[in-house]
Description:
Layout: E1 5-13, E2 18-25, E3 30-36, E4 45-51, H1 65-79, E5 82-87, H2 111-120, E6 126-129, H3 133-141, E7 146-150, E8 156-158, H4 162-171, E9 192-197, E10 202-206, E11 211-214, H5 217-227, E12 230-238, H6 242-254, E13 257-262, E14 278-284, E15 292-296, H7 307-317, E16 324-328, H8 330-334, H9 339-352, E17 355-359, H10 362-370, H11 378-385, E18 389-393, H12 400-405, H13 415-425
Helix pairs in contact: 7-9, 9-11
The structure holds zinc ion (ZN).
Amino acid sequence: xxxxxxxxxxxxxxxxxxxxxxxxxxxxxxxxxxxxxxxxxxxxxxxxxxxxxxxxxxxxxxxxxxxxxxxxxxxxxxxxxxxxxxxxxxxxxxxxxxxxxxxxxxxxxxxxxxxxxxxxxxxxxxxxxxxxxxxxxxxxxxxxxxxxxxxxxxxxxxxxxxxxxxxxxxxxxxxxxxxxxxxxxxxxxxxxxxxxxxxxxxxxxxxxxxxxxxxxxxxxxxxxxxxxxxxxxxxxxxxxxxxxxxxxxxxxxxxxxxxxxxxxxxxxxxxxxxxxxxxxxxxxxxxxxxxxxxxxxxxxxxxxxxxxxxxxxxxxxxxxxxxxxxxxxxxxxxxxxxxxxxxxxxxxxxxxxxxxxxxxxxxxxxxxxxxxxxxxxxxxxxxxxxxxxxxxxxxxxxxxxxxxxxxxxxxxxxxxxxxxxxxxxxxxxxxxxxxxxxxxxxxxxxxx
Length: 448
Ligand SMILES: [Zn+2]
């Protein structure tokens, strides 16, 4: 049998760059290879192996082959070297008859691709663009050294229908988690991952001159926790409007993992969209230990505490007992202080044994009072977090004082209050205080 004979060599100008195109034939199967650069003896070469899939011809919303191809072309062009191997195997290697059957066994074979990588291009190791476990295993069995896997979406994961398929593949253990642990420079170990459940709203700060900030709790907490060695995964929804785009750009600039969905529903003043912008008036207090008071209008936006989406996010991020979940008290507000709804949310975390970092924002309780919702009930709250390992994050607007002394002034809690909280409510650590845009960090009781 002829092994991967080169039968054709051309070049192609794509939207993303010029690629060399080689066609190989082994007497039975054909493969097309798009490549950039001299790849001989190279390490960690970017590689995408794509099997034929016809679903995009029919605009199947769950097919992301074209997105993956586009992203691969883009990444390889940017890197200046890499290859894409197209294999002729429809229906997961079972042929046309199973093309539209999601539950068919994955019979794809990557032997030819492995031979091309090893023998034709003599590549030492690859960085493979995939989440597909079968592909990874099969390539390794055929002698390919995979340095790491990369997902085509990168760190900013925009939620779309095609992700539903990825999620079901993760559940069936056919796909690996797209959010990989990052390692410190010294490779001493993985960072602590923290799923951020907080507002991603834009605050229009009424300072002089007025400024628009993506200033929501989620955004700020992600920045603050990242500073303390955490690897945040920001989660939430943004509106399909200019504010939504501003939020997206700000989050992309952070270069942190994010799972973001677009939400066009404008429900009420606590809408999940960004069609309205929160206005925060800042008053100087003259007290250096607590320089500002913040006054909110009734609008808050870009929150996302939808249980279904949260569940999907947990699956995508493969949340486990080594991970943390940051939760702002706005969750309770959004859930209308409905104990059943709140419990559902926390039960997802409990199933994974993740630890909780809690942000008790005083403003959310104020808002609770202002909107005449059910008043804060500590016993109910404790019922929700019962069984979770609780960490605590305190910010400027915290209601620690209220919790401990049943007062509602702006006093910054004393260390005694912290001790009380540790003892009474089982919090292990207080991490830090943080300010607008995460810039004004102040350690108070950092115990990590
Ligand atoms: Zn497809």
